[in-house]
Amino acid sequence: EAGVAQSPRYKIIEKRQSVAFWCNPISGHATLYWYQQILGQGPKLLIQFQNNGVVDDSQLPKDRFSAERLKGVDSTLKIQPAKLEDSAVYLCASSLSSGYGYTFGSGTRLTVV
Amino acid sequence: SQELEQSPQSLIVQEGKNLTINCTSSKTLYGLYWYKQKYGEGLIFLMMLQKGGEEKSHEKITAKLDEKKQQSSLHITASQPSHAGIYLCGADDGGAQKLVFGQGTRLTINP
User: I want to staple B35 with a disulfide (CB 3.0 to 4.6 A). Which of A2, A54, B43, B94 is the partner?
Assistant: First the structure.
């Protein structure tokens, strides 16, 4: 079974620029999560999708972050404009349903300079 | 919401030594996950525990969930350089069907 695919693996941008991350979950997994992990801390949930609907986006800074999951499969997370404090690893995870078993991708390491 | 506290935050051990990492929850644990992470990369699933008193092992790593289901421990026997990394515990956040994480434990193995 193919795992959760994320791209790019690394990204360096200047502050105020925009950036987008892509995630392809495991086939058939209805639930998709985006986490932000600032180095030295544990991952923090940004947004949770069930199919193509948002279940929880309470921790998403909506003035600059946006996410979508078209057709209930792939998802993109966008930051516009980026700030220095957005430097982090962005992790995508998926689960079959009802939060049972979470599989994580390799992450995207973002550096904002 | 549920909060997880890991201890210690960092650990340096000599190769061949045993070590234990603890994860304490503010609420009853209904699903406790252990992951390993290399610096700046994705999470690798190690084990999941659900029942109080449950214990699982994989190679030299053993995880336990205590009877009261508010604490879990991860024990590594005869540590090797390949065990180095960041260990994260994660828990199902009540009925919210999402994972909340501890802050992680950074493990260094000295040869």
Answer: B43
Domain that holds residue B39: 4-110
Of the listed ranges A19-23, A27-31, A97-101, B82-86, the least confidently predicted one is: A97-101
Which single residue is written with the structure tokens 């340096």? B12
Q: How far apart are CA B13 and CA B19, in angstroms?
A: 8
Asked if residue A24 has pLDDT above 70, the reply is yes
Q: Which band of pLDDT confidence, cut at 50, 70 and 90, is reported for residue A99?
A: low
Q: How far is A107 from chain B (nearest CA, A)?
A: 5
Q: Are A43 and B42 a contacting pair at CB < 8 A?
A: no
Give the integer Cα–Cα distance in Å for A18 and B64: 44
Identify the weakest region by mean pLDDT among A13-27, B76-90, B96-110.
B96-110
| Those residues with Cβ within 8 angstroms of residue B104's Cβ, 6 or more apart along the chain or in another chain | A40, A41, A42, B6, B9, B37, B86, B87, B88
Chain B residue with Cα closest to A91: B42
Residue of A nearest to B47 (CA): A101
Number of domains, chain B: 1
* Domain CATH code at residue A11: 2.60.40.10
